[in-house]
Amino acid sequence: MGILWSLRSDYRRFGELKRDVLGISEKMLIQELRHLEELGVISRQVYYEIPPKVEYRLTDRGKSIIPVIETVVSWGYADMEIEALEK
Q1: Which of 41, 40, 51, 39 is nearest to 13 (CA)?
Q2: 4 in Cβ contact with 66 (< 8 Å)
Q3: What is the DSSP string of 27-45?
Q4: pTM listed for this prediction
Q5: Residue 16 — pLDDT band, cuts 50, 70, 90?
Q6: How far does CA 56 lie from the centroid of its chain?
Q7: I need a labelling partner for 71 at 20 to 30 A (CA). Which of 8, 26, 53, 80 fits?
Q8: What sign for the dihedral angle of Cα 71, 75, 76, 81?
Q9: Taking the domains of the chain in order of start, what are their residue ranges?
Q10: How many CA atoms lie within 13 A of 18 on its CB side?
């Protein structure tokens, strides 16, 4: 979910994703990016320059899940507020 959330508004380079998605190892990030690309959720654009540049962005299919993630995030915040009030 963190990768998709990071990509929700624009493209990201690998280093940016690594900073945005807390607690993920480089190996796991690479695996997840490949898997999401295979599913057609993200696209990968390679620029053949020195140093090499790779950008990731959501496809239309990937963009369609963002409202669901926003709902889950909103629910989480609301639930935290309810728990805080109950204490």
Answers
A1: 51
A2: yes
A3: HHHHHHHHHHHHTTSEEEE
A4: 0.81
A5: very high
A6: 10
A7: 26
A8: positive
A9: 2-86
A10: 10
